[in-house]
Design brief:
single chain, about 325 residues, mainly alpha, three-stranded mixed β-sheet, 10 helices, 3 strands, globular
Length: about 325
């Protein structure tokens, strides 16, 4: 595919925040803090899962993979967005725009597929506990994570090739803060409405398929929980699903709003803020939800912090004795 021969546009200008000049410095400070907390939260989850042997189970293996995909997704978009807020130069090259779009779809849909896999894991754990170690052994878990990443790669490739195979004749101003598909499609010389609808429908179908699979899993889970005779047993079973279910609602709720909103092609200021919420706030909330609602993970955090403080105390004591 010869992109250079299909377009006279060599770079794009991201104008997503141009309508909020008085808020750009404040947005930079807030988004930087949120981004740092997001990185710290997801990195901490991955580290604690790695060092704590009690968390070496399929559920936390998938959670570690989910945290990894969130770090990659935010890194694809937020650093460039922060630079544009204060740097003044909002341009991005044609190839750079294609790369950003590809990785944003890759990591975004990998995240969706991993949430689906985690829903299946909870279904097996609650509905088929005696066969859990058979259905969710190490080999199968690795294959599920690999399939999630492969699915994200495929969707990212399909969407990016479809969009950037088209000619761009100008203008080159993208009404967004990153190279997102709907506002970018509006800049093509072809029938953008038809293409935008087709690609948007394809993405919505993939998201809807994942969401329906999760709903089906929780339908079986709910039926099993209701058959548990004691209220304490029901609460214990549901508590293992609460954090995952909360993240699913936040993730798919925001994603659905975005794709349904863009069925009317022109992006509004409100639409930009909605997309900002999904891009920045959803990855920010995810580690917080899992950390606060998962008792086992909270205990592992405390143990990890306790070991770290103990190690620092020993080092200080040794230095004082040596001195």
């Amino acid at each position: 595919m010869q992109w250079e021969n299909q377009t006279t546009v060599t770079e794009f200008i991201l104008i997503g925040f141009s309508n909020f000049p008085e808020l750009q410095v404040r947005l930079f400070v807030v988004l930087l803090l949120v981004y740092l907390v997001t990185l710290a939260g997801n990195t901490m989850i991955m580290m604690v899962i790695q060092v704590d042997w009690s968390l070496h189970t399929p559920m936390y293996f998938f959670l570690g993979a989910l945290s990894s995909s969130e770090i990659c997704y935010t890194f694809t978009i937020i650093p460039k967005m922060l630079f544009d807020l204060v740097g003044g130069n909002r341009t991005i090259s044609f190839l750079g725009c294609a790369v950003q779009m590809y990785f944003s779809f890759l990591f975004g849909f990998t995240h969706s597929f991993l949430l689906t896999v985690m829903g299946y894991d909870r279904y097996v754990a609650i509905c088929n506990p005696l066969r859990y170690n058979v259905f969710m052994n190490t080999r199968i878990c690795v294959q599920m994570v690999a399939a999630s990443w492969a699915g994200g790669c495929l969707i990212g490739l399909v969407v990016t090739v479809t969009v950037f195979h088209l000619p761009f004749c100008g203008p080159n101003k993208i009404s967004h803060f990153f190279c997102h598909m709907p506002p970018l499609v509006e800049l093509t010389c072809s029938d953008s409405n038809t293409l935008g609808t087709l690609v948007g429908t394809f993405c919505m179908a993939a998201l809807l398929g994942c969401f329906l699979f999760i709903l089906l899993s929780y339908g079986f889970i709910l039926g099993t929980i209701l058959c548990i005779p004691s209220a304490a047993g029901q609460h214990k079973a549901f508590s293992t699903c609460a954090s995952h279910l909360t993240v699913v609602i936040v993730h798919y709720g925001c994603a659905s709003i975005i794709y349904l909103k863009h069925k009317s092609p022109r992006s509004s200021d409100a639409g930009t803020l909605i997309d900002l919420t999904y891009t920045v706030i959803t990855p920010f909330l995810s580690p917080i939800i899992f950390s606060l609602r998962n008792k086992k993970l909270k205990n592992a955090f405390r143990k990890s912090i306790g070991r770290s403080m103990f190690s620092q105390g020993v080092c200080v004591l040794q230095m004082e004795q040596g001195g």
